[in-house]
Amino acid sequence: MPGARAGMHEKDCGLHCTDNKDQFAYIYDSYAGPWCFCKDPVAGVENVSQYCTAPTDIPEQINLQYASSSAVVVGFVTYETADSSTAPPQARLQAAATLAATHHDPPPPQIVTGVTHMYAPPGRNSTDLSSNATDFALPYMMHYITLPVTPGLKYTYSVRSGSGKGLWSDEYSFRAPGGNAAETRVATYGDMGHSHYNCMQNVKDDAANGLIDVVVHMGDHCYNLGMANDRRGDAYMNAFQPALTTLPWFPIIGNHEWVYRNLKPGESRGHGDGDSGRHYEAIAWGEAYGVSGDSIPFPGTGALPPSPPQALASTATTALGHHLATGTLYGMGSHGLIPSNTSRYISTDIGLIHMVGLDLNNLDPVQLAWFEADLARVNQNRSKTPWIMVMSHFPVFHTQTAAHANMSAAHYRGDERMGEYAVDGSEMTFEPCPEPSIRKGKPCQTVGEFQLQIGESLQPLFRKYGVDLYNAGHVHSYENTWPLCDFRTGAICRDEQNNPLKTFDEPRGTVHITEGNGGVPGVAATYGVKDCCRHGKWVDGTCKGGGRFWEGCRLVGSGGAYGRITATSTTLTYDRIANNGGNITDSWTITQHNHGKFPDQPPVPPAPPAPPSPPHPQPPTVVKGCYSQLEKAGRGVPATTIECQTQGSIISAIPFASWGTPTGACSSDGNSNSFQVGNCNSNETLAVFTKLCVGKASCSFPGDISSMLGGDPCQGVLKTLDLAVACKPKV
Questions:
Q1: Model pTM score
Q2: How many Cβ atoms are within 10 Å of 535's Cβ, its own excluded?
Q3: pLDDT tens-digit map of 384-397
Q4: Going by DSSP bridges, is the β-strand pair 491-492/484-486 parallel, antiparallel, or unpaired?
Q5: Which residues of 685-722 are buried (b: 16+ CB within 10 A; e: fewer)?
Q6: CA-to-CA separations, 517 to 359, 624, 652, in angstroms, rounded
């Protein structure tokens, strides 16, 4: 049978049946596919669990996707030969009696039919059903049926394919969302793979206890979903099936479903998330990232699809990507207030919350035009859906991206190798842009440029239409902001007297949430929250010890967790729930009586005029072991070139560098010094100046040090640039 839960270990390991007869007591390992227990005992290896060879014609990977208040899409997979399904798939849907007080019997079950798509990614097009088949490789038959529902009503259902040999699945039950007009309850998280401490069981229990009606997964499903001939993706969906058969979900696609990392020499495809040499590039029928469906080959065939109106096609190269994308298209992509007709970007009303899923992998003009039209439509009646929550995989503001604004966006948005996943956001790695000679003249977008691009596109729309919440993943930890009025700097909103508003009462801007660790591979059992003084500690109200602080950041958290949102017409409460144990680690409530456009911010006081430029360029500053310069009234330092005192020497090291409020002094040789970082410090200073200067006879830098380092480490504080510079004779 397919594994019922996610894997305990990120390694290949079997579980012996003699350890415990109750197979459901285990968290199954699904490293390369679902496990079976006691399957086909062989002499010498009796009673050993092993990878499943999936049976034919039996539904698996069953999941409900939310479409609208009146429709839920059930998707499932069967393995069959290409000519076995001659009829549409079926669902047997049974509604409970609408009112128990009427003493009426429940209405009879209805048979609802849907559509089937065959999907044969590379390596999954075999028709070998013999006992000699060693690697199950039949193509996928992916089935989608739209179930008509009434909000709040409970339903039971089972499904089967249209094959003459197709068997009915077990019977499942769910309650259609939206039955409570006074309260809406959803769960949200991003980034969940095969790990012991994920939230699959949590959301299943929450649904059974009536705490949530829908769950939102904000991208990065499974991790290495194309691994082992797509069997790891199969295991993920089978592990999630017990939860997703009982409540609808809202899947959003992340970078792990979008970009395929280039393999290094000697690496196999098992090191990456994709199959056939690349990650799947599209999450929708008829839409690749900026490419129309009639111009891309159908996966596994190399052939172009038919002309419209049958031009719907997918460029997904993994089965899970294809399965999620197609279900989303039949769901919210076709049923939104303004149907997007794609699963790249989608929206729907869930009770009192209008929920939008964006694709920030490619925020193109067509998507932006649809987004504004969608927001304008929902703002015609905010009394019906007072809250707007926009979601994507990538944060629009995050202190990690702000702190590493000068690093490579391609690395930040890319795909980690197996074993390199950051189990917590504090362990996230950033890499500088490659040297121009390595990238052969191609431009290198920085993290700051990427964040600025999406922020400048979205912030005016968020303000114009009063977007209450922005929710994302990608960074594998928790971060929550006060209402922000500047997505670039993380500055909070202000009142008419320019006083900062650190409050959730009647906010004037969007509250940002990053909940990016639904259970990434290897996540620990521990969890916690702390304030936003990163890499330092608070002393007398100041972030000291090399820490950085952004005024908009409210709290950060670690460990596997998810958010549980409860909304009424005027309040929205966010509870952060630890996967391990279900404890609430943070809770806050927004109160808003005036939903809609946010008020304009007071004008920022004008900056003092810049001093006149000197009539002639300044000569290079000759370094004698140190460089120290205090900025002038917040306008940076003079543009400077530094070089060693002794002719023919090169800069061999930068033992110390700080842009902020450093203390101490250094020696004439630059090596022995008493420098220390102060209350304010840019953590990028040492790395940037080391890269800029070491190995050179001289190096130059502009006066705007904050921009050079990716941001102001402490706004409103006069800063000093201190450098200790060591030199040696050029060999």
A1: 0.74
A2: 14
A3: 999 999 999 999 99
A4: antiparallel
A5: bbbbbeebbeeeeebebebebbebbbbbbbeeeebbbb
A6: 19, 48, 41
